[in-house]
Amino acid sequence: MRLIYHVLGALMLWIFVDALAGWFVHDPNAFPLSITRVVTDPMYKPIRGVIGGFYQGPIDFSPLIVLLALSAIRRAIHPAAFDLPKPPN
Q1: Residue 35's domain spans which residues?
Q2: Each residue of 13-29: pLDDT tens digit?
């Protein structure tokens, strides 16, 4: 579980770098987008398919949605990852 927890954290950092680089690098074939998009595009594609029909504008919300989903998964496995007792409800 610890490995999954840390891999999800690294993936969240990777998505953040991709989103930040997308603001400054406008050529998708240029560094670092050429590297980050290999990992992130398969995660973004289903979300873009769903929200593409509702919203078409200059802002891409798919990285934010993926980050929120990964954050929820990390929060769900956090007690199990470090063998901590679950907090009372």
Answers
A1: 2-81
A2: 999 999 999 889 888 88
